[in-house]
Amino acid sequence: MTIDYEARLSTLKQTLAAMNLDVIMITSPANVFYYTGFLSDPHERFMALLINNLNDTTALFVPALDKDIAASEAAISNIVSISDEENPYEILKQALNHEVHWFGLEMKAVSMFQHRQLQSKFPNAHYKDIQPAMNQQRTRKSREEITYLREAVTIIENVLTEGIKRVKIGMTEIELAAELEYLMKQFGAVGPSFSTIVLAGEKAALPHGVPGDRTLQNGDFLLIDFGVVTKHGYCSDITRTFVISEATEKQKAIYKTVLNANIAGIESIKENVPLKTFDIAARNVIHENGYGHYFNNRVGHGLGIEVHEEPSIHKNNEQLAEAGFFFTIEPGIYIPGYGGVRIEDEVYINEAGVAEVLTSFPKELHIITP
């Protein structure tokens, strides 16, 4: 299976044509990957996909140490390498070799330093934001992308199946997180898509808490939120919450409420309704059961090449859902000092305009018996 990067670039050019841009410069590594197939983190070095509309050429500027791999992986034949001793903006100016009046840039990706460098080399240039057009394109996932996303889900669910077998009383959150990230590699992932979250007991009330030295004990909630990046560059993101040894009636009630909220959110998904519908459907279940005060964040987010992408699934989002949208549904209840529950699934609005759930790890309350 191959991605048609030329078609992606052609679509972008057509979308941006009305903006009358002289040059389109894409610097976000995720966007560079989306349009070229070359995935790299240049760190502080300069990397950019440059579309020159004045002479209808396209070039990929990369650090010199990445030249060979870019040449082998990118769907762009014109590779311009920049050594650490060179000024990349001077190289850019030489490559363009004409006055630029309108640059198309990703406004959220360009730093003040980069902006000043561009101003120094192109003093008469003005800038327009191209990020919304790329977000719109990337938000609609193709069936080929769903195949890659499903691969990421399969790996992380295999990791979770094996990982919970390794839970032991007295082990720390960070020890379990390390076990899970080791398993990711064993099951074929490049690595985690974000820093693995493992939270026990009262710490499960922290939606984005950090694993630490807190030990796992009988009766604890155990919240695991994690994902992988595959060799194809796509991410997964799943959360399941367990109870160790024995659950109290209160824990069971909280869990059931979150599970019902998760189900309600997923059952509400279809095309041509506002995205807020999915958040509200899940949120109402939590509110009606008296826990509304303990759910203060959105119910989901898009993902794909990055673990957080458009669309944002929140209660005020009036944007209409479309076939091709791919996002999480992850309601939760977080009670400070007591603990919390989150259940997160990945959902695709398929070609028929209905929900297709990629995650399949069981959601009924699972009591882990170490």
TrEMBL record:
InterPro entries: Creatin/AminoP/Spt16_N, Creatinase/aminopeptidase-like, Creatinase_N, Pept_M24, Peptidase_M24B
Family: Belongs to the peptidase M24B family.
CDD domains, per the entry: APP-like
Cofactor(s) the protein requires to work: Mn(2+)
Name of the protein in its database record: Metallopeptidase
Alphabetical list of Pfam families matching this protein: Creatinase_N (PF01321), Peptidase_M24 (PF00557)
Residue ranges occupied by any Creatinase N-terminal domain in the UniProt entry: 8-138
